[in-house]
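Morning - flavin-adenine dinucleotide inputs below, output right after.
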Amino acid sequence: MSVASGGPLKVLVLVKHVPDAQFDRHLAGADHSIDRSESILSELDEYAIESALQLIEARGGAKAGHTVTALTMGPERAAAAVKKALQMGATDGVHVCDPALAGSDAAATSLALATAINHLGGFDVVLAGMASTDGETSIVPAQLAERLGLPQLTMASALELGDDGVLTGRRDSDTTSTTLQATLPAVVSVTDQGEEPRYPNFKGIMGAKKKKTVTLALSDLGLDAAHVGVAGSWTHVEDAQARPPRTAGTVITDEGDAGVQLVDFLADKKLL
Amino acid sequence: MANILVFINTPTAQLGKAQRELLTLAHRLGEPVVVFGAPATDEAVTAVGGLGATAVYAPSGALDATLIAGEAALVADVARSTEPAAVLLPNTADGKEIAARVGIKLSSGVITDAVDVAADLTVTKSVLAGGYTVTARATHGVPVITVKPNSVEPVAAAAASPAVTAVEVTDAGPAATVTHTADKPASGRPALQDARIVVSGGRGVDGDFSQVEELADALGAAVGASRAATDAGWIEHSYQVGQTGKTISPQLYIGAGISGAIQHKAGMQTAQVIVAVNSDEDAPIFEIADFGIVGDVRTVLPQAAAEIKRRQG
Ligand SMILES: Cc1cc2nc3c(=O)[nH]c(=O)nc-3n(C[C@H](O)[C@H](O)[C@H](O)COP(=O)(O)OP(=O)(O)OC[C@H]3O[C@@H](n4cnc5c(N)ncnc54)[C@H](O)[C@@H]3O)c2cc1C
Ligand SMILES: Nc1ncnc2c1ncn2[C@@H]1O[C@H](COP(=O)(O)O)[C@@H](O)[C@H]1O
């Protein structure tokens, strides 16, 4: 039963476990994959979790039977991303985890996620962040919409779900601000322009321990290992060069003529 | 020579710089074939012909006002009939999402944020907030590549008279509909993404962007901002530089009253020259600045602007 016909609202929120940008991040190994040792829930996916929680809270929340399921695809330790989502208030979790998934590009990731979404079934809204803070392609949500045959309402900064099951959102470009509408089910991504994500409180942290997370392997999804991971990816990184770190140049303290000295510097660099 | 399909979303008589760059790149890689996101006009066809396009495909009527789905179906259809060696799109939010769906429709690899495409269609891009430069290839299907602005020097080609083919738009499938569009006011300054010089203001300008704007105008520069400044509502969000704003590589970046948080650096640390003005000598932005001034933006910026005007006479 869909939300428009009075059933509970079922939201799926996609969360990714990504290397923490506060530390140096490295590409390593023959396939130039990213070193994932110091990883966290992507900050941008916290906005998706916040939006998902607000969608169900506006209708009475989990108590009223509405659900927010947090789904991640990633190695074992990616479970930490789901855990944080549960602490924030998601109702249950799913972890798609299989060694064969390592090295998946956007196409392979969207295939695995779409297969998992179909396998789980019945979601009204699939909610993602605007970009993963490691890959930064912003293409997985659009690829999911394509694969699932659902409308996409992506890069939205304000979301509202009417009782008629019509979702409204705002999408801004440099020159325009557009209002979009989609009927559910739909694939949605949200920017960081919405409300600030909440912090897990003590109750949330304790409550998360009792929430259920299902782990799914490729065999559970009926997905062929040849279609995901490095083998199933349609792009390949051939070479990676660390950019030499920038070094500090001259620093002066203003003694009344720093503006003029700045112009001297620019003239010297032929930038005027 | 192989076709290189270029997507021009809004065809006009005056092509934008990013559009000219895409056509220049296509001309370097093969024979530019263009797909318009809207019905063709003679002026727009002449404009792309002036950059070497040999054929134009355009929808016979305006696309439905939906998000992404219509454009993706159109580009994929034209790619199937023109069999290009690569598809090039602008690296905007729309361009990337259209590319994303075209990639699935054509079972093709998608590479975003390209700054260069070699003759063998190897793509160069920078990743991890400018920390690495990588080369990548599409290993399946037709490479679908979104190209960042300021990557190619646009040059005119021997003008061609492109043949125009009208394309019947097929059903794009479920999509979100656009119910309202509001235009944002234009600033009259160079666009942030195309600009050779950018002057940005942060929390340190304390609500007043006039000195940032004055220095920008003296330098013929674009104005940018940190997220602290856009979040405070001092300036519109589209001016934000950084991880969730614009990623830019201008020749000169001047950051005024900006601390240099990692998410801000992600958007500007590939600038050729970085200048920082900050009253706190420990601000992290000084670690990456070629020229740093420990001082107050309210005195340093106006003095620099006045000095530039004086020298320009
Ligand atoms: C998911 C996420 C995404 C983000 N994306 C972005 C992004 O895209 N872009 C971005 O910029 N930030 C982004 N941020 C925010 C970022 O972490 C910082 O909070 C932000 O960049 C700080 O802006 P600021 O430097 O203007 O402010 P502050 O860090 O407060 O720095 C202000 C500086 O101004 C100086 N100052 C004060 N008064 C004066 C004066 N009179 N003269 C000179 N200097 C003065 C101070 O010494 C200080 O160094 C993001 C954060 C998150 C969590
Ligand atoms: N491995 C993953 N697991 C769960 N969600 C993901 C994964 N990769 C991408 N996403 C979702 O897709 C969004 C955009 O990612 P990207 O296209 O990689 O920039 C992210 O913010 C997530 O919400």
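Note: The first helix of chain B runs from residue 17 to 29.

O.
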